Amino acid sequence: MEDKVIINIGRQYGSGGRRVAEALSAKLGISVFNYEIINEAARKSGIRADLFERREEKKRFFSLFSDSFINDETIFNIQSEVIREIAEKQSAIFVGRASDYVLRDMDCLDVFLSCPLELRKFFIARRRSVTEEEAVEIIKKVDKERESYYNFFTFGNWGLASNYDLCLDTSVLGIDGTADLIIEFGKRRGYIK
Predict the structure, then answer these.
(1) Burial classification of residue 46, based on how many CB atoms lie within 10 Å of its CB (0-12 exposed, 13-18 middle, 19 or more buried)
(2) 110 lies in a domain?
(3) Which of 15, 22, 153, 168 is 20 to 30 A from 64 via CA?
(4) What is the CATH number of the domain that holds 34?
């Protein structure tokens, strides 16, 4: 497929990464792959989807399942294979799962989204029906898991600006404005037609 567009989105928990991906999808007509990667990886491997879900962007998983040893590396490799197969066939927006690293040899637009903790704790508290103090603890835990996962598999540094083409604070322009800026950047770079 000519003029294929692949956008990889890394994000802090509560920064609106999934919502920005959905806005990009609506504006560009490109499918978003987030939890769909888990379902496809489970289908392809024959491993239950809940094992992928429990390990979502976490490292150091060891479990005995169906007389075979399923570890974090196996899960990562299966998901990576699914990400590569999708990217080779079509335009796509990938959310998380170190997709920027998995597709490092392909022409992609790699984006990292952040947002101040004060706003993220408000959003997470509302979304998960917890106190803001509990939300802060959840945010710290999820961000630490994402960082550990990314750093473990990529030997890189999650959220480090030099790993990405574009780093944005979603609180500055909001969800739609952030999506618009990503598209504008992609067009100026000549990546999005």
Answers:
(1) exposed
(2) yes
(3) 153
(4) 3.40.50.300
